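TICKET: design request
STATUS: open
ATTACHED STRUCTURE:
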C-alpha cells in the first residue's frame, strides 16, 4: 500500500481547489458554497441506529454508487491521517480493494477523497452523510 507520511500535498491541493478550506467535511462544504460550487449532501437513513451494520465496502459502494471514477490517482485522508501523518494514495482502479484491505475501518470518522485530475472532492461526514464536490 503506497502511503505518504505528509499531509502537505493534500493541503496544498485543497487550497488550490477551495481557498480557505481545511481537510474537514464541514469546512470543505462551506468553502464550496462560498465558491458557488453545487453539491448534494446525502444523508444515510437511520445512521445512528444502523451505522454499525455497514461494512467498509458497503459504505464505499453506497457513497460511490453510480459514479464513474476520474482517471489517475486518488488521495484519501481519514481521521487517522491526522494522528499518524499518513494518507492513502493509489490508482483509482485500486481504491475499493485498498479500502477493503485496509487495517482501519476508515468510515468511523471523517474521510476526504481528493481527485487531483479533476480538482474534485468526495467527503464522508462522521455523522452519516456524504457529498461529491466538483464532479
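STATUS: resolved
RESOLUTION: sequence designed for all positions
ATTACHED SEQUENCE:
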Amino acid at each position: 500500500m503506497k502511503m505518504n507520511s505528509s499531509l502537505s500535498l493534500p493541503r496544498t491541493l485543497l487550497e488550490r481547489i477551495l481557498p480557505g478550506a481545511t481537510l474537514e467535511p464541514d469546512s470543505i462544504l462551506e468553502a464550496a458554497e462560498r465558491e458557488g460550487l453545487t453539491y448534494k449532501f446525502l444523508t444515510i437513513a437511520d445512521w445512528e441506529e444502523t451505522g454499525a451494520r455497514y461494512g467498509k465496502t458497503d459504505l464505499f459502494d453506497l457513497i460511490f454508487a453510480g459514479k464513474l471514477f476520474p482517471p489517475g490517482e486518488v488521495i484519501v485522508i481519514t481521521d487517522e491521517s491526522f494522528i499518524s501523518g499518513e494518507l492513502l494514495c493509489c490508482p483509482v482502479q485500486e481504491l475499493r480493494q485498498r479500502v477493503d484491505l485496509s487495517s482501519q475501518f476508515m468510515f468511523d470518522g471523517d474521510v476526504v477523497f481528493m481527485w487531483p485530475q479533476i480538482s474534485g472532492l468526495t467527503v464522508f461526514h462522521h455523522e452519516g452523510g456524504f457529498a461529491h464536490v466538483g464532479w
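CLOSING REMARK: Residues 1-5 have pLDDT under 50 and may be disordered. The helical segments are 8-17, 25-34, 47-50, 56-63, 79-84, 95-101.
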